[in-house]
Write a structure and sequence with these properties.
2 copies of one chain form a homodimer.
Chain A lengths: L5 H24 L6 H8 L3 H7 L3 H24 L5 H22 L1 H13 L2 H23 L8 H12 L5 H9 L4 H15 L14
Helix pairs in contact in A: 1-2, 1-4, 1-6, 4-5, 4-6, 4-7, 5-6, 5-7, 5-10, 7-8, 8-10
Amino acid sequence: MTFADPIATDLEQSRTRILEVAERHFRRIGYHKTSVADIAAELGMSRANIYRFFPSRTAINSSVCGLVVKEVAEIVLAIAQTDAPASKKLADLLTAIHRQSTRRLVEDRPMHQLLVAAMDGSWATINAHNEDILAILKALVREGLRTGEFKVQDADEAARGIITAFLPFFHPVLVEQRVQEGEAIAACVHAQIRFIMTALGTSDRALPEGISA
Amino acid sequence: MTFADPIATDLEQSRTRILEVAERHFRRIGYHKTSVADIAAELGMSRANIYRFFPSRTAINSSVCGLVVKEVAEIVLAIAQTDAPASKKLADLLTAIHRQSTRRLVEDRPMHQLLVAAMDGSWATINAHNEDILAILKALVREGLRTGEFKVQDADEAARGIITAFLPFFHPVLVEQRVQEGEAIAACVHAQIRFIMTALGTSDRALPEGISA
């Protein structure tokens, strides 16, 4: 039997409170305008105390970014764990990743800006998130190989191919450019998923509903 | 028999001279630090005179950008016009587009920055360039369909799929992020070209040399 370490739990609670306040400030005034002093003031702490929990301002930014992308990872994982055919799950999962990205741009601009910075600065949490998504995709491709839906030689390479081919529909900078240009994005997303399905050797008749031309 | 319109020719020469000076300034101090006054001074012109040839500062930026991407379009067209098999031309053409993009980032940073702005602002010359490249790709996919190298239902959709799937390897912002992360880009480029070839129904044995796994 193990007991939770009370000191570790206190540390975790303090970190969580700091991140909650940081996230609220980021949403209100933007991450680049939020200072560690702002966060400390709201928590009735000294700045030095904040630095006991986060080594740097960048660490706070990166951790808030981790919270934002965790939401996407949870949606993606939930789709991957359903009983649907692998090809349908892949189509749904890519559509969901795209939707989260455009939704953030339109409805949650400050967090969109945070993700732009995260991708640009290659922050630890965004890299970890990308690896998580890639791992889910690799497992999904292997699942599709077992069920005979996909026909590829190298599942890992195919998973990387999928995510790269779909990057224009979820990378924050590219999504912003696409939305600015007022492209008919939904049709483009479907077409790109069809392209990806062809690369996976999915026959036309096996394409999920809504994706077939 | 037609004669060149001397007034039109004069106008064209003046435009060319203005763009040459602008390009030189952009390379030396960056496009955002170059003022219309700088360009006018070097040409011994008034600013008002510059505006006779270009309606705005943005029009000058966009035209210089047009010169930069023209170079890429010429390389791509030259590859598309050789007698090689369509699959080899496609692989060579994508590799060349990627190479130009990384070369610019490393050796010609001011023009890289100009292209970042062009993509972000959706400037007329970059949009026209993207349409040109897409047209070349569409023709190449149709060529591959005729020779039996490619098997796709819709050549135009396939061409758009190719360019979207390869965007991470030539979009200036994404190329910069990739280079920063120090990824083994050449291997990634080859893998992505293989993924694209699979989507086009190219059999493994037909993959161009250097691209096969």
